[in-house]
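Lecture notes, continued. The same structure-token format from the folding unit now serves as the input rather than the output. Read the line below as a description of shape only.
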């Protein structure tokens, strides 16, 4: 979010002496994007964040894609995705391209280290579970329905406070932003936006950790994960200010835009990034023209792949999908309501569906691991018989 936030203790002027009670200096760190030309924050540490005791490569980050075959609509049922490991270990990526990777995480163990993605932003949609993000910017609580935006370079970990946890994961190679058309020239969200600044939650509490010991941060950069060992707690910031920080937004606070006739998918847009967008389908009233057709019209994704992650409710244009289903409707193929769904929608007043959509403007590649959860006859579900 592009608005100014300040937490903790910071000096009156940036880049000036800021001293501890014992007379020593705090260590100022600029965390910025696109060199020095985009949004940034200044963080003040008890310890110098450059002091690393040890570095060790953990693994490469690579996905094994299926071989290209006939283009078709795809359906993957993720609800029974295996649980296991902490929040990072539990991630299972099912499709990706040069701009974004999409998958599921069902962690069942706490992280005993911290994580930093040095390759791009992350968007975590909380389907099930509650807890908090512990980051260099402070603590941020979350619950079902929350989008969590974690900027590139943020040191954090997920602390689970419930038995079951399920996340829809969006790993981005670019910044994740609110749509430009919803913002004025100063960055403020406009009146026609389906949300406003008061709907966004920034870190709630900053408690600097002044602890010595052995602490690990796993960093993703240059296609691999490396473990770095520090002699002090990595969350030692006494204060920070700026425009770059993690934040939360609940899908339940998205206010749907409706009309006399069916509105196109851009009215559901929630975030934008380089070569893809994220949309929220939420409970809403249907169109109110006396002869309106509530079900969406058939449309051709001539320049984008459409991914839908089904969260809850009755998705009125589909049959055979369930909680945790992921459908992929690739570019070049028209798609729309299943047979009988158009007629069934006539006269309906509202829908209770809840889903997250990702439209990518370059084709997605399917990771081979997704074959284990695929519904192979999904393409034929549009046949009348």
């Amino acid at each position: 979010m592009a608005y100014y936030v300040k937490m903790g203790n910071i000096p009156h002027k940036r880049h000036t002496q800021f001293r501890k009670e014992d007379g020593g200096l705090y260590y100022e760190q600029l965390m910025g994007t696109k060199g020095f030309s985009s949004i940034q924050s200044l963080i003040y540490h008890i310890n110098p964040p450059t002091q690393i005791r040890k570095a060790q490569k953990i693994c490469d980050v690579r996905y094994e894609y299926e071989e290209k075959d006939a283009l078709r609509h795809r359906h993957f049922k993720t609800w029974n995705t295996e649980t296991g490991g902490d929040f990072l270990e539990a991630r299972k990526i099912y499709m990706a391209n040069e701009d974004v990777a999409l998958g599921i995480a069902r962690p069942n163990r706490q992280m005993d280290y911290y994580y930093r993605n040095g390759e791009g932003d992350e968007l975590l949609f909380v389907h099930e579970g509650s807890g908090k993000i512990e980051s260099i910017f402070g603590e941020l609580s979350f619950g079902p329905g929350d989008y969590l935006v974690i900027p590139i370079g943020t040191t954090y970990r997920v602390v689970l406070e419930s038995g079951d946890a399920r996340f829809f994961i969006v790993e981005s190679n670019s910044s994740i932003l609110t749509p430009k058309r919803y913002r004025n020239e100063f960055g403020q969200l406009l009146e026609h936006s389906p949300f406003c600044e008061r709907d966004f939650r920034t870190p709630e509490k900053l408690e600097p950790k002044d602890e010595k010991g052995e602490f690990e941060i796993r960093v993703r950069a240059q296609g691999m994960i490396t473990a770095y060992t520090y002699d002090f707690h990595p969350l030692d910031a006494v204060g920070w200010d700026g425009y770059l920080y993690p934040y939360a937004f609940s899908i339940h606070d998205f206010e749907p835009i409706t009309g006399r006739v069916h509105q196109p998918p851009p009215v559901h847009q929630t975030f934008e990034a380089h070569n893809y967008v994220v949309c929220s389908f939420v409970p809403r009233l249907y169109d109110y023209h006396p002869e309106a057709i509530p079900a969406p019209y058939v449309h051709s994704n001539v320049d984008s792949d459409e991914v839908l992650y089904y969260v809850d409710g009755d998705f009125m244009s589909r049959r055979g999908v369930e909680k945790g289903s992921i459908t992929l409707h690739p570019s070049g193929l028209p798609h729309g309501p299943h047979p009988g769904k158009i007629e069934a929608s006539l006269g309906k007043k509202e829908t209770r569906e809840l889903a997250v959509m990702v439209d990518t403007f370059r084709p997605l590649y399917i990771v081979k691991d997704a074959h284990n959860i695929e519904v192979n006859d999904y393409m034929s579900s549009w046949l009348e018989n």
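Point for the exam: Helices lie at 341-345.
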